[in-house]
Amino acid sequence: MSTLSFPGNPRSLFVVASVGVASLMALALLSLGAGSSNSSDKQRTGKRKPSRRRKPKVYLRGLYNLGNTCFMNSTLQSLASLDAFNAYVERCIALLPDSDRNSVDAAIAVQLKHVLDLLSPQLSRVSAYSPRSLINSLSHKGRWIASRNEQDAQELFQMLSSTLQSVVRNAETSLFDSGFLTQHLPIENGIVSTSQQSDGDDVAKNDSPNSSPLAASQSSFASARAVLENPLLGMAASRTACVRCGYIEAIRHSTFDNLSLTVPRAHTTSIEECLAMYTVIDRLDDFKCRHCSIVATLARVKQDIATCDSDLAAQDRTSKRAKRVAATAATLREQQRVLDDALANNPEADLPGIQLASPPPSVSTRQTMIARPPKILVLHLSRSIYLPTGGTAKNPACVQLQRFLDISPFTTTGHISTNASTPISGPAVPVNKYSAESLAEIRRRNCLYRLSAMVFHSGAHDSGHFYAYRSVKAANSDDAQTGSNNILTDSDQWFMVSDIRTVEVSLESVLDAGNGYLLFYERV
After folding, report:
1. Nearest alpha carbon to residue 146 among 155, 135, 137, 154
2. Between β-strands 501-505 and 404-406, what pairing exists: parallel, antiparallel or unpaired?
3. pLDDT, tens digit, for every residue of 305-319?
4. What pLDDT score was predicted for residue 95?
5. Which of 200, 196, 255 is closest to 230 using CA atoms?
6. The pLDDT of residue 125
7. C-alpha distances in angstroms, 115 versus 10, 145, 188, 331, 442?
8. Helix, strand and coil in the chain, % to nearest 5
9. Average pLDDT of 184-213?
10. Structure pTM?
11. β-strands 516-523, 376-382: how paired?
């Protein structure tokens, strides 16, 4: 049996033993105290403090660079993060008629859907993918896709968008041919015709609005249009007005799938400033105003009528010359009537047989605003600078971004201004984005957007590298159940994707990157 021995005085053994016993007692008391404190806290609160759950790990698939195809890889990664666009591609393929499934457009749509499915977020690591089949399909529509030269991401986006629109047009033709849209009543120019509506007695028997043939046809048409709706398409309104006479031409509407914005030549700017430049009121110095031409023509006609009347007063009414002058005066008076009617009702109306005068060009204003915001707003930041030498350079301005974008200052409100020097629509009521009432009003006008993806370009104007930032929505995020008070909360994850390389990044680093080229916003 061995014993533990301590050198020196035996009193030292007693001291060490005492210290050891005291330490054990202190530890026991502390543990009892902590246990009683935790139990008392639990008794006071009645519930355990919630634990912070970790977000599930998300992985993204990269795309191989097959020879300067970074412009394609970054665009596809951005499109993959847009739920509405992915659903639109799926609907396009589902509506493909059998006779069109072997076309070039159909092959592109099928390959596009395949790649987008592969780029969806995964819960485990996945290997990169080679989009060679999609490149081969696209090369049948544009040979530049398959070349190894530097290409542009916006041009690819426009090709994909136009291809899907072509697929939709063929699908619409197929639906009309099969009678899906005309199974109840004829449809003329997108408006359901009421020429075959039942008489009063029959209508009285069916009180329900959904039981009438008209309602059934409207429902079929609305459902088909909803299926074929392109989330990328919006509508812009353009107005040209003459400063001299104040005449405003008919407001012209045009559709768009992306807006090309000029980036100001400044060190730092914002996306709102780029949109303001797009909707600015431009002044044109060589405008030929139709209203001014009609006014000048009417003045000339009245002067000719006065000359004819003066000649008739000095001549014998029975002479041949007098009869010719009288006939000319009658023609001029008919022209005067037509011109007066045009000025009063529609200056753009055709004026057959009347040669309009050409007054000196006047100063006019022209402005374009967004009339119907799309579900997905795509903004192209044009960074080309044309040098005096004839060459081009890249505008390196840093464009500051925010997670949420309110485009209500750049949209029409339904009230048209008749002043050539003021915007098409009056300025929207100033809103506070952080007010529940203001957010509700912005959302009601479909003007609030959330940034979902971006294509960035690094390098010079004619060379460089494209890469993407894309968001991955949280598993429990649901815009439909999100109220105005917490709409600004953000739980999405962001990734930087450069060909086969994917790295999770913070939202702040995305917003501060500054060198954006294509911005993808989803409507909230």
Report:
1. 135
2. unpaired
3. 999 999 888 877 778
4. 84
5. 255
6. 92
7. 83, 16, 38, 69, 35
8. 40, 20, 40
9. 39
10. 0.75
11. antiparallel
